[in-house]
Design a protein that fits this description.
Layout: H1 2-38, E1 45-53, E2 56-63, E3 73-79, E4 94-97, E5 101-107, E6 120-126, E7 131-133, E8 138-139, E9 160-162, H2 169-175, E10 179-185, E11 193-198, E12 201-206, H3 207-222, E13 226-232, H4 263-279, E14 290-293, H5 310-329, E15 336-341, H6 357-371, E16 376-380, H7 415-421, E17 437-442, E18 447-448, E19 452-453, H8 455-470, E20 475-480, H9 487-490, E21 499-501, E22 511-514, H10 516-523, H11 530-541, H12 546-549, H13 556-563
Parallel strand pairs: 9-10, 9-20, 10-13, 13-14, 14-15, 15-16, 16-17, 17-20
Antiparallel strand pairs: 1-2, 2-5, 3-4, 3-6, 6-7, 6-8, 11-12, 18-19, 21-22
Length: about 575
């Protein structure tokens, strides 16, 4: 019995020691956690530059704080785009002596599996227990310096553009358009038939699909048209990595946000974007000069990721946008990369799935400035209010269109609100210039929701809108939607085409006859005919002269001469 009692006491003693050790470990972890949460290093670093120089990445910064601890070094950590913190890592990439200024230089490793082209970097200090980040993440800001294609951007002769039917290319050429839109289904580009090696990994692309797009882009380029690609991500069960984790196919959603928050999603995006920029770099398959990443991103109906605050939403979009931007610009140095919004400047936001366009622009710009300035641009959609009525010049009566910065809607009627806003110092690009703005989608219906046929009003709206844009130096393109009415839109009083369509064929776009707007748009930028074909519109709009209502009207001198 004594032996049993002795053994029991020994076991109990061992158990108590184990329990005590566990308590101490827990308490210790609690102390460390509390330490990490409450004790911050004195150092406060702003990384002021992160750029490629030769085969190195040069990173500089300024310490606006003090110097803490016994360790005398700053440490540079490399993060992938999908990573948000250094956590418990110890594998710093470089070190520099503590002081007011800090500088690091590390190999770029361009083109290899260990490439740092897409990486972001943070400065950290050792606090005696772990490495703690003391700076914001900074991305490389000049990926264009490594691009093989350094051809300059070719600016079109006019701003006139159109969403065309690919079977009607000759008609578009007759119209004299210089800008065209091509929608790319991002989720179907992965496939078979084309092997592409990028940064040490081989990707497989859909040759049958790309052969069709090659034909389109090649033909457009041959006509000397500036091609804008809209990169869209609709649903495909076969490409789950392209969607944000946890997102499922959702009713009422047209497109989904690109996923760069996981390693697989990030790698797919960078490879596809690099491939497209190289494939359509101007040799053999035609040239794409402008890239719009997603559609109307202030409304998740067109860029779904799930309910979240505008801050988190923009953070995730910017994460993917930077991957696209770096892939495209590191391949074709002078291509332009855009995001798009609708006209809801300060209107219809709910804070979780719909956001004000102005808030998206402000937040995106602030994020980019903090993480490394890049030359992002805006593709805007300034439809009339409502879309089912063509007269935008009386939209002020709705109370939604004003000339103030807080206007609920910014459309063609008050377009200068947008271009004035983009002249603010905090929105200028890295060279201090106003960013490029294109109007990549707008149309004016020829079928009023309340009055039926209104072809003359449509033609007048197109004339007035084009003159406004053509006279605004901060707008690069006016891309009309569309060449031919779409039956699905026309039945909703959104007959935006220059041609009527065959409504008996609802699943096809088949032109029937030209509208009055056709000749207006054809000759709107021809000095010999422009004022003649738009003369009828003045009475409909209620004006005597175009130069009375359009600041710096391009044809002002001609209009004055012809009236004398």
């Amino acid at each position: 019995m004594k032996q049993l009692i002795k053994k029991a006491r020994m076991k109990l003693g061992a158990f108590l020691w184990i329990a005590l050790a566990a308590v101490l470990i827990i308490l210790n972890l609690g102390v460390k956690t509390a330490h990490a949460e409450t004790v911050r290093p004195a150092e406060q670093v702003n990384l002021t530059s992160c750029a490629i120089s030769g085969d190195q990445v040069q990173i500089t910064g300024v310490n606006y704080g003090g110097v803490s601890g016994n360790d005398s070094q700053f440490y540079l950590f490399e993060l992938q785009p999908y990573e948000d913190s250094i956590g418990q890592r110890t594998d710093y990439a470089a070190a520099a002596a503590k002081g007011t200024n800090l500088s690091f230089s590390i190999p770029l490793n361009y083109g290899t599996a260990s490439s740092r082209l897409y990486s972001k970097f943070v400065a950290a200090v050792w606090d005696g227990e772990q490495y703690v980040a003391v700076s914001q993440p900074a991305y490389i800001t000049n990926p264009e310096v490594v691009a093989k294609n350094q051809d300059p951007f070719k600016a079109p002769l006019t701003k006139k553009g159109l969403l065309i039917e690919t079977s009607m290319l000759d008609d578009a050429f007759t119209l004299g358009v210089k800008h065209v839109i091509v929608n790319f289904p991002f989720q179907f580009i992965l496939g078979t038939g084309i092997d592409y090696e990028y940064e040490g990994k081989t990707y497989h692309f859909n040759k049958a699909l790309l052969d069709e797009y090659d034909r389109i882009v090649k033909n457009l380029t041959a006509k000397d048209l500036s091609v804008t690609a809209v990169i869209l991500n609709s649903w495909n069960d076969g490409t789950p990595d392209l969607y944000y984790p946890g997102v499922r196919q959702t009713a009422g959603v047209n497109y989904y946000m690109f996923n760069a928050s996981t390693q697989a999603g990030y790698e797919d995006i960078k490879a596809i974007a690099s491939f497209l920029a190289e494939h359509y770099g101007g040799i053999g398959n035609g040239k794409i000069s402008n890239w719009i990443i997603g559609n109307e991103i202030n409304n998740q109906e067109w860029n779904y990721i799930g309910p979240m605050s505008v801050d988190q939403y923009v953070k995730e979009y910017e994460r993917a946008f930077r991957v696209f931007y770096t892939a495209i610009r590191s391949t074709s140095a002078n291509d332009r990369v855009y995001f798009s919004t609708d006209y809801n400047w300060n209107h219809e936001a709910n804070g979780t799935t719909k956001y004000n366009a102005k808030d998206i622009i402000d937040q995106f710009s602030a994020n980019v400035r903090a993480g490394g300035q890049i030359d992002w641009n805006l593709a805007y959609h300034p439809y009339s209010v409502p879309l089912t009525e063509p007269e935008f010049w009386d939209d002020g009566q709705t109370g939604l269109v004003t000339w103030a910065e807080n206007s609920p809607i910014v459309n063609i009627g008050n377009l200068s609100v947008l271009t004035d806003y983009f002249q603010k110092p905090e929105l200028l690009n890295s060279e201090g210039q106003v960013r490029h703005i294109i109007l990549s989608e707008q149309g004016f219906t020829s079928t009023s929701a309340t009055r039926g046929d209104c072809e003359e009003l449509q033609a007048a709206a197109i004339a007035y809108a084009y003159y406004i844009v053509d006279s605004n130096p901060y707008i690069d393109a006016f891309i009309m939607s569309r060449q031919v009415d779409a039956p699905s839109e026309a039945q909703l009083s959104a007959s935006f085409g220059l041609y009527q369509c065959d409504m008996s064929q609802p699943n096809r776009i088949v032109p029937t006859r030209m509208k009055k707007s056709y000749d207006v748009y054809r000759y709107i930028d021809k000095s010999s005919k422009t004022l003649e074909v738009t003369k009828f519109a003045k009475e409909l709009i209620g004006i005597d002269h175009w130069y009375d209502v359009i600041p710096d009207f391009r044809w002002k001198g001609l209009e004055k001469r012809t009236q004398n």
